[in-house]
Amino acid sequence: MNRPTPTPVAHERGIVLDGWLGGGASSAVREQGETGTFGIGVTIGVAALMVHVKNGFFMNWFGTQAGEGYEYHLLVVGMALALIIAGGGRWSLDSLISNNIKRRQS
After folding, report:
1. pLDDT tens column, 16-65
2. What angle do CA 9, 13, 17 make, to 5 degrees?
3. What pLDDT, in 10s, does the model give residues 64-81?
């Protein structure tokens, strides 16, 4: 059976998908939430460094730049850092579920 050999680009895409999908899912249900958020932050940070830094800071609002800047990426990395440090808090999904269970038990 002839299988195509995986290229480095395909492998990198797989890692990025794992970071986005796994990170988002684990952050949503708060199961390993900090680890998932870290995966999202690293993924977007690497994307900013590899692709967007050469285009400057600002996004391409008026279509005059060659590409998008890293302004948005810096925002997402900052939000991920805040979630890693402070956690989801009382509005996280696991907090809402556990509070609902506690109310039903009492």
Report:
1. 666 666 666 666 665 567 777 888 888 888 888 888 888 888 887 787 87
2. 175
3. 878 888 888 899 899 889
Query: Which tokens sit at 72?
Result: 């948005």
Nearest to 25 by CA among 41, 15, 40: 40
Contact 60, 68 (CB under 8 A): yes
Domain limits of the chain? 10-105
Q: Do the Cβ atoms of 49 and 69 come closer than 8 Å?
A: no
Return d(Cα 79, Cα 44) in angstroms, integer.
11
User: In one letter, which amino acid is 64?
Assistant: T
CA 51 → CA 38, 42, 48, 93, distances in Å?
Answer: 20, 14, 6, 33
- The answer for 63, left when phi > 0, alpha when psi is -120 to 50, beta otherwise, is left
